[in-house]
Amino acid sequence: MEYRVYFEHPVIYLADHREPHRREITELLVNAPTEEAAAVHALRVTQGDPGTLRVELVSVWQIQNAIRIKRLEEELASLRAGLPDA
Amino acid sequence: MANYAIDFHRTASTVASLGTISADATRPRRFEIYDLIFGSEAAAADNPFLYVLQRCTAPGTSTAVVPQAVDPADAATEMDAGENHSVEPTYTAAAIILELPLNQRATFRWIADERGQLMAPATASNGYGIATPTASALAITVQAHVNER
């Protein structure tokens, strides 16, 4: 299950070592079997404040459909751009 | 069939996995790993690392990594990836598919033989985990290229 964990205040994502000082985040996608596990994981890797945390289940279908719809809209726009003016 | 790039990062740990690639829990599809790059971006030093790629049946708890389509025209993938595990994947005992002993200074690239891709079944949450049973607490990275069928 994929969860989106939100923080009210930006926290540092410790997993990324390339530019840790710039990796301030307000949300984190977490793969976890339960909402509680997702929250625990997010706190562990960010050392964020538990009081500012909110967890939501992400529908993968929603994200993928949004990408597909955006792509279709772009294709439609490009087709329209090629049509002569009415 | 489409190709995806997945990058994994963490401070290496002997008890916590670097990352997993697994079939989706509800819409599983087969996938095959065809290219892997192992290395450390920490300041040069001599430290031994053992990278182990092992089959798993559940991906544990990790920070999600979104596989990136190599061809932007391809759709988002079904398979799931995660890094920086806090709860270990459920590894299949002895199912070690690739084992790489490396010095920290040495980056290593593994490329599948034409018929030697590392396959994963279209079974919910099944896939591969990357662990480092021998490691120093330094930044490590693995880049995986995966084909989803």
Radius of gyration of chain A, whole Å: 19 Å
Q: How many β-strand runs of chain A?
A: 3
Note the quaternary state here. Answer: heterodimer
Biggest sheet of chain A, strands in spatial order?
A: 2-1-3
Count the strands of chain B? 12
| Mean pLDDT over the residues of chain B | 95
Instruction: Provide the domain count of chain A.
Output: 1
Helices of chain B, by number, come to: 0
Reported for the largest beta sheet of chain B, the result is: 6 strands, antiparallel
Q: What's the number of domains of chain B?
A: 1
Classify the secondary structure makeup of chain A into a structural class. Answer: alpha+beta
Written description of the protein model:
The complex is a heterodimer of chains A (86) and B (149). With 86 residues, chain A is α+β, with helices and mostly antiparallel strands. Chain A has one domain (2-82). Chain A has 2 helices and 3 strands. Chain A has helices at residues 35-46, 60-82, and strands spanning 2-12, 24-31, 53-57. Chain A has a 3-stranded antiparallel β-sheet. Chain A is elongated and about 55 Å long. The mean pLDDT of chain A is 78. Chain B has 149 residues and is mainly β. Chain B has one domain (2-148). Chain B is built from no helices and 12 strands. Chain B has strands at residues 2-11, 19-22, 31-40, 48-58, 61-65, 68-69, 80-87, 90-103, 108-111, 118-120, 127-134, 139-148. In chain B, strands 1, 3, 6, 9, 10 and 12 form a 6-stranded antiparallel β-sheet that branches. A 6-stranded antiparallel β-sheet of chain B has the order 5-7-2-11-4-8, with no helix packed on it. The N and C termini of chain B lie close together (4 Å). The mean pLDDT of chain B is 95. The A-B interface holds A 1-2, 13-18, 28-33, 37-38, 40-41, 44-45, 60, 63-64, 67-68 and B 9-11, 20, 24-25, 41-42, 58-64, 66, 75-76, 78, 80, 82-84, 86-87, 139.
